[in-house]
Amino acid sequence: MNTSIIIDNxxxxxxxxxxLGMIASFCKSDLKIPEPLxxxxxxxxxxxxxxxxxxxxxxxxxxxxxxxxxxxAILMAAIIPVYAFFILKIKLDAANAAxxxxxxxSISAVTFITAxxxxxxxxxxxxxxxxxxxxxxxxPAIVIGIVLYKLFDKQVNKDESSAxxxxxxxxxxxxxxxxxxxxxxxxxxxxxxxxxxxSGEKGWDTLSPFAKDxxxxxxxFFLLDMGIIAAKRIGDVKNTGxxxxxFSIIIPVVNACIGISIAKxxxxxxxxxxxxxxxxxxxxxxxxxxxxxxSIPDANPRLYIPMALAITLPFNSIVGIPLYFYLITxxxx
Amino acid sequence: MNTSIIIDNxxxxxxxxxxLGMIASFCKSDLKIPEPLxxxxxxxxxxxxxxxxxxxxxxxxxxxxxxxxxxxAILMAAIIPVYAFFILKIKLDAANAAxxxxxxxSISAVTFITAxxxxxxxxxxxxxxxxxxxxxxxxPAIVIGIVLYKLFDKQVNKDESSAxxxxxxxxxxxxxxxxxxxxxxxxxxxxxxxxxxxSGEKGWDTLSPFAKDxxxxxxxFFLLDMGIIAAKRIGDVKNTGxxxxxFSIIIPVVNACIGISIAKxxxxxxxxxxxxxxxxxxxxxxxxxxxxxxSIPDANPRLYIPMALAITLPFNSIVGIPLYFYLITxxxx
Amino acid sequence: MNTSIIIDNxxxxxxxxxxLGMIASFCKSDLKIPEPLxxxxxxxxxxxxxxxxxxxxxxxxxxxxxxxxxxxAILMAAIIPVYAFFILKIKLDAANAAxxxxxxxSISAVTFITAxxxxxxxxxxxxxxxxxxxxxxxxPAIVIGIVLYKLFDKQVNKDESSAxxxxxxxxxxxxxxxxxxxxxxxxxxxxxxxxxxxSGEKGWDTLSPFAKDxxxxxxxFFLLDMGIIAAKRIGDVKNTGxxxxxFSIIIPVVNACIGISIAKxxxxxxxxxxxxxxxxxxxxxxxxxxxxxxSIPDANPRLYIPMALAITLPFNSIVGIPLYFYLITxxxx
Amino acid sequence: MIxxxxxVEIVTDSAEIETVIELLDEIGVSGYTVIRDVIGKGGRGKxxxxxxxxxxKNSYIMVICNDIExxxxxxxxxxxxxxxxxxxxxxxxxIITDNPPDNR
Amino acid sequence: MIxxxxxVEIVTDSAEIETVIELLDEIGVSGYTVIRDVIGKGGRGKxxxxxxxxxxKNSYIMVICNDIExxxxxxxxxxxxxxxxxxxxxxxxxIITDNPPDNR
Amino acid sequence: MIxxxxxVEIVTDSAEIETVIELLDEIGVSGYTVIRDVIGKGGRGKxxxxxxxxxxKNSYIMVICNDIExxxxxxxxxxxxxxxxxxxxxxxxxIITDNPPDNR
Lengths: 333, 333, 333, 104, 104, 104
Ligand SMILES: Nc1ncnc2c1ncn2[C@@H]1O[C@H](COP(=O)(O)O)[C@@H](O)[C@H]1O
Ligand SMILES: Nc1ncnc2c1ncn2[C@@H]1O[C@H](COP(=O)(O)O)[C@@H](O)[C@H]1O
Ligand SMILES: Nc1ncnc2c1ncn2[C@@H]1O[C@H](COP(=O)(O)O)[C@@H](O)[C@H]1O
Ligand code: NA
Ligand code: NA
Ligand code: NA
What we know:
The complex is a heterohexamer, with 3 copies of chain A and 3 copies of chain D.
Chain A: H1 3-10, H2 13-26, H3 37-60, H4 64-89, H5 94-105, H6 109-121, H7 129-138, H8 140-164, H9 166-169, H10 173-182, H11 184-213, H12 215-238, H13 243-265, H14 270-281, H15 287-295, H16 301-332
Helix pairs in contact in A: 1-16, 2-12, 3-7, 3-11, 3-12, 4-5, 4-7, 4-8, 4-13, 5-8, 5-16, 6-14, 6-16, 7-11, 7-14, 8-10, 12-16, 13-14, 13-16, 14-16
Chain D: E1 2-13, H1 17-27, E2 32-42, E3 45-47, E4 58-65, H2 67-84, E5 87-96
Antiparallel strand pairs in D: 1-4, 1-5, 2-3, 2-4
Helix pairs in contact in D: 1-2
């Protein structure tokens, strides 16, 4: 495995800004990006990814191969939380296990972007429909996670909950599905994808200076902020023993390997295979935590957020992506 | 009338983002652009429109035709509130009638941009002095609205007001004129226009990547937010009967028709005529509401804001502009 | 001295936006850029200056001449506060004298940018290592200022302070050095410089649309805000007599002259000499005030902020830069 | 005119604010004031906001109401407090009032 | 040193805050604290802010003052409350103080 | 369950908030709520925030605690108040509580 790939990946300015953020945080510098500016950057990224993907999808069209890929994406998003849940249940209660499982079933847009950039550096490009895969993989894990929680938590304290606080535990599937499929980030990326699809290359000419030219700069700022926050959050997992940190590194690799196998099976090219495996490997720190907070309030956000943000995200960005790519080059030869 | 024009207009990405915002709001998604980010977009738009217009004005110079156009613009901004007021007085009290009349006498920068974009799609371009017209049309309606209110409200409760709360009803024309002509949005667009005028093409080279290239992207985000808010506000007018919603659709068309006639009279070309009629047809939801809140606090912002924002703005953007353009093509043949 | 240089300098759009801000403030317009948007612009500027400088430094490399320049920069940043302090002590107590001295020993990134732009208009370019000089000159003055304060304040109320509030006056050098060298703005510009240095021209291709193309636009918005605030702050110095306003104009000229002499001595070219003298002449209104507030709380921020922001900054931007350049053209002939 | 009232103050998860407001609307209090995104510390540790996930944020609600309403608020909100934590404060205040404002 | 004081709290239109502050300055209170852009509900319906027009926003002001000043505030602000709505709360507090801070 | 408590409110320099929080953590109060970047006026003049330098900003802290803690806070914070100004308010409230929330 060529280490120069890893180094190239690390020297990419946006990634360096992530490290700058981490350093700032470790040095206890007062460097910070005050709210709601981080929201500006994350809204922008969702918009730009979605729109760009939509335009690309407009070019390729929605053919059979695309549909198969999207089907595989949804499948993975639904399966990952199931096995992740049972692994986690070894050490954790149902609430935390379900929330973390959902986190790892869903995806991280930033890791997706890092993979795309990694491909660019190697002169490759993945299909626009991978953005559709990204959008489709955000929500199912939320639903699966909640189902698992309901199944395995009910058995324990069934009587108690149904007696004392009926109206609150009177859990609403409507609310859950609403939160899963219509939360802000899912809607923005899906909507932008759709707008890109509809407006095609004419729309791209209109928006590309905004959606593409300044993209890396906005990403750099977003990653600077992510670095600051990730470094702050690392402390939260430090005191939980070795199980969760280990999980945060091993499960992405497992997910990526399964993803690579499926990618091979359905005949994706190398670029698409990398992106697919990265989607499987990545963990959500935006849509899922927001949904979990409302649906499984007994789960501790100080576990699932830092795992996804402070361990899995940097691991995937630095080691994971080159590793998965290396595996793919072996398989696809 | 060619319906493909309407459709082209609708498929323009920024307009689609307006709809995305409306959909998000109707679905009760938590998608939102947190404050003060919408301010960033609106400040940017005022800056970019003003500066661009100033540079264009630098090219054409301020000749006789320009002065006639600007005179006509001021005239329209002063007349519209008068007849609008008397129509509104049929159903409303003086305070609300005056505030709504002022709203419709003033202009909406977003509708102006939509018209400019519409022209671009058809390969036409309006003169830079139309931005000066835009700037000049913002304020007069505020003053006229307040004059009407003073005239027609005093008669009703003259004695009462002068007795009990002298210092508050001790209305200050200084404050009103200050608010009308020096409020933030008027000053920014006028100042930017002036800076564009002074710095000319050299200045344009300096700023065009910022003021022009990313313009449509910033507009998309602003419209996304406008869509979210417009959809929320629709509820406010729903319960007021048919009069106000009807007014919000009919009066723009009336204003546009008068605008078209005057444009023909003073010999504007088709592009300028469209922009002129759109300025007449559009209603303010930034400068005027802010001024009305301070000068006519008895008027209900839950009437004049949603009328301008949730009905007239979408109507003009979707149906109005193509319609006015159609009428102009008929007349100018 | 060619007055057209001054006028060209003044007609540059970003500078005009500074004046627009001042006008808005003087007219008591409600035009304002709500927080934290000004932070967005200032973070952006630090990022863009740092990154650009780093890339330039990558091109030239770090040679002997560069090191001499940087040494001279640190020297100036350390000497200026010393003589400034003794001048100020004539009229002020140790706390205020030290805080103002530190302010003038440090630098202003905006004045730096104005100088760069001024050079551009004249078709010249300074070296990328001048950004490194900028970064290195931010912090030393803070330390020197605090040392001076400790030396000259202790003598007066030594007994009192050591008795009553030991833990608070138990001053921590660690905290001071931390604040001086790791405050947000120093870290961001240094970090960006370093990232630029590491990623070189490849990185520049990635980020230049963000870091360069929209730079003047972001600068315009930042200066608009600076104008608004500078105008508000002018009132604060108005009531302090003639000493401080005079100081705010004379000391920059003195510093610039010393800077020019040293530049000549170490053999800088005209462009670098201008930038060097401008760094010496400029005063900090970001990093230093923040540090002074914590280290010398007895100094009055209503003195040192407006001096740097409302007098020295406009003076340098309008009169100073052309003046220093004129002097340089005389010397370098 | 002076009236004696209870001031009920609640600090809880920003995510729960919608639920609390619904409860207040049901109870029919005459009004409330909300300050979003305050930060703090309590039984569940420090909550200083997290810009990326929008979690770990508190909101503050203040309700001026009469004794009966205060009791109903306390009762209605107890399950939320049990589940999501937060702090619930009651104190005595007077409000200055006259006929309700007639405009709008 | 402990002093007994009144705490006057006002929630009203953000647009009126300037006027309220002018009144407080005229009355000569020793200080006040303002929290901008709080949201809420009252007699005039929900006021959750409107980013586009900057209307429908409330601000909160707290003034610690003596009884006489409290009365003068109430009197001075009554016309504003009548016109623009809002809520005006008074309660008793003690403040911890000594000689006024001598720096600046 | 109802408990009588002190409500300690502090408005001071945003730059000092960290120090105040450290003191509170040392004293061991059960919690506090902070509202950042409030504006105001006091003995040191108007403090309406300065976006460029991040100075001249206040923060508001509210602590619900028992009488003994209240005294310790007052003592601990006096030097800060003397040095940086601000206002320190104490009042009586009741809090509604039961067993501490058991989740997390
Ligand atoms: N003793 C207290 N004084 C003031 N605020 C508190 C106190 N305890 C809790 N809070 C607030 O309530 C929030 C939630 O508390 P908890 O659920 O106990 O973590 C905290 O983050 C604080 O903002
Ligand atoms: N009973 C109340 N308790 C707390 N805040 C209130 C109350 N009534 C009104 N307010 C606040 O005062 C604002 C204006 O009230 P109003 O003028 O009655 O609509 C509301 O939006 C609330 O923020
Ligand atoms: N009498 C008061 N009432 C309310 N807030 C005050 C009062 N005095 C001071 N403050 C707040 O405390 C801050 C600092 O006060 P000072 O140190 O006296 O300037 C002020 O900016 C206000 O926000
Ligand atoms: Na995943
Ligand atoms: Na109009
Ligand atoms: Na200097």
